[in-house]
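Quick one:
INPUT:
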């Protein structure tokens, strides 16, 4: 595919974090136009593309709040009529990387040294971890012995010879007394399954002095103008009296939701007015991007 793309005839949409360093923005623009020679470029945020997708599918909605939890951090970003309200954006320095690293530490302390196995443990996290709906109840279950512990999972680690990818043993094949009579290397996971994702909601539990997602949402909404705040307060269960309705949307494929938004954006009639062309850049330099892109 790479060899089939004529960059000089191609427009690119590229995402970057909110409030990205200007030096990085400038370097990115330089690479796009001077090294790859793209015909035009649009720099934006993944959250903005998600908001565009949302408003496209729900045109009657005026406001939304995007919770974008990624690899390095989580952003809370409010939008009104597809425009982000910068004063309401909140960043939490907790993302998938931190969760994986914390799981590595727990497993290394309790069972097996895996501090050098980031890729493998990241797969373990994705396969067995979940967000608890009743944290203290799950903690009680996780302390039970044998088959009474319904949360217990045995994870077979890959050896990259006969086992290419790790997997959970089926419940009926788990050994609850004694040891397995196989050469498989197995991790036994119980409260780790839900205690690790809990960091997204209560990072202070492990000494990280950051707001969790619910607190960040409250803080974001409270910083917004009255009209926006009232609208969002009517849609978030965690922020309002119980009798008010709640609307929380989880896309069918969250990973591609921003990409789908970018695809929709690229086909809007006024797309050409949003981009900076190579001609604009060659004539005016990086300043034209600062004026055009609201990052």
């Amino acid at each position: 595919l790479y060899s089939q793309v004529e960059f000089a005839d191609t427009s690119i949409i590229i995402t970057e974090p909110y409030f990205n360093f200007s030096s990085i923005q400038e370097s990115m623009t330089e690479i796009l136009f001077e090294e790859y020679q793209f015909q035009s470029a649009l720099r934006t945020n993944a959250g903005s593309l998600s908001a565009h997708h949302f408003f496209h599918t729900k045109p009657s909605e005026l406001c939304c709040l995007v919770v974008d939890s990624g690899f390095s951090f989580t952003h809370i970003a409010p939008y009104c009529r597809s425009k982000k309200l910068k004063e309401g954006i909140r960043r939490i320095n907790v993302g998938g990387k931190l969760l994986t690293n914390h799981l590595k530490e727990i497993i290394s302390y309790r069972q097996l040294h895996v501090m050098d196995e980031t890729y493998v443990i990241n797969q373990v996290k994705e396969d067995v971890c979940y967000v608890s709906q009743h944290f203290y109840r799950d903690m009680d279950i996780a302390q039970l012995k044998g088959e009474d512990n319904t949360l217990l999972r045995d994870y077979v680690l890959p050896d990259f010879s006969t086992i290419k990818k790790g997997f959970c043993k089926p419940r009926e094949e788990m050994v609850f007394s004694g040891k397995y009579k196989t050469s498989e290397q197995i991790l036994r996971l119980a409260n780790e399954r839900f205690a690790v994702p809990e960091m997204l909601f209560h990072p202070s539990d492990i000494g990280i002095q950051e707001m969790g997602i619910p607190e960040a949402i409250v803080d974001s909404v409270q910083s917004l103008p009255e009209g926006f705040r009232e609208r969002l307060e009517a849609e978030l269960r965690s922020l309002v009296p119980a009798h008010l309705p709640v609307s929380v949307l989880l896309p069918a494929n969250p990973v591609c939701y921003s990409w789908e938004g970018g695809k929709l954006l690229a086909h809007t009639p006024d797309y050409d007015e949003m981009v900076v062309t190579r001609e604009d850049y060659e004539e005016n330099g990086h300043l034209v991007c600062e004026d055009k892109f609201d990052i």
